[in-house]
């Protein structure tokens, strides 16, 4: 596996190393080797690469940074799920399965959202780093509020627009409306 380039991005909480890798030469020789031997070769190459990257780009353990390494392959040659399995085994063998977030990506022109959603290791990282604000960012509160009001009106047999408008003018929030309707 040949490293083509390395890029580093650091934010307040994440230290990211993006490594672009070309493994085409490794796969050129695949036809001459049986599958098990080739998978062992992939595993040893990946272990060597991970150890090299970690030793070169170590952020101290007491650091406030989350340590992240993206292995960006020019071409995967095999399914991403198989690469993820090989990466998991590699991280277990070097006893680093929890120390770093390492995921594999491919330089591709396909739909990035679809690609990201299929990349389980990357999705685990993204989901583990969502803040509470991110989790509620895409919720349509206005629609939820309108549906809740309509349901409350329906449960209390309030069907006339004039009645609904009068209640909406008298109360300032959904909680007040629901409490009023529970009392009556």
From TrEMBL:
<dbReference type="InterPro" id="IPR048323">
    <property type="entry name" value="Spo16_C"/>
</dbReference>
<dbReference type="GO" id="GO:0000217">
    <property type="term" value="F:DNA secondary structure binding"/>
</dbReference>
<dbReference type="GO" id="GO:0007130">
    <property type="term" value="P:synaptonemal complex assembly"/>
</dbReference>
<protein>
    <submittedName>
        <fullName>Uncharacterized protein</fullName>
    </submittedName>
</protein>
<feature type="domain" description="Spo16 protein C-terminal">
    <location>
        <begin position="138"/>
        <end position="180"/>
    </location>
</feature>
<dbReference type="Pfam" id="PF21698">
    <property type="entry name" value="Spo16_C"/>
</dbReference>
<dbReference type="InterPro" id="IPR043637">
    <property type="entry name" value="Spo16_N"/>
</dbReference>
<feature type="domain" description="Spo16 protein N-terminal">
    <location>
        <begin position="16"/>
        <end position="133"/>
    </location>
</feature>
<dbReference type="Pfam" id="PF19225">
    <property type="entry name" value="Spo16_N"/>
</dbReference>
<dbReference type="GO" id="GO:0010520">
    <property type="term" value="P:regulation of reciprocal meiotic recombination"/>
</dbReference>
């Amino acid at each position: 596996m040949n490293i083509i380039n390395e890029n580093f991005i650091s934010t307040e909480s994440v230290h990211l190393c993006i490594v672009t890798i070309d493994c085409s030469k490794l796969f050129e020789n695949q036809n001459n080797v049986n599958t098990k031997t080739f998978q062992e070769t992939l595993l040893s190459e990946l272990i060597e690469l991970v150890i090299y990257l970690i030793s070169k780009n170590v952020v101290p353990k007491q650091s406030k940074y989350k340590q992240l390494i993206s292995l960006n392959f020019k071409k995967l040659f095999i399914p991403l799920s198989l690469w993820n399995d090989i990466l998991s085994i590699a991280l277990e063998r070097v006893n680093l399965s929890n120390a770093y977030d390492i995921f594999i990506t491919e330089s591709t022109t396909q739909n990035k959202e679809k690609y990201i959603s299929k990349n389980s290791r990357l999705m685990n990282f993204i989901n583990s780093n969502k803040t509470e604000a991110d989790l509620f960012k895409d919720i349509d509160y206005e629609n939820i509020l309108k549906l809740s009001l309509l349901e409350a009106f329906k449960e209390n047999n309030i069907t006339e627009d004039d009645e609904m408008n009068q209640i909406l003018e008298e109360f300032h929030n959904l909680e007040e409306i629901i409490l009023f309707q529970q009392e009556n």
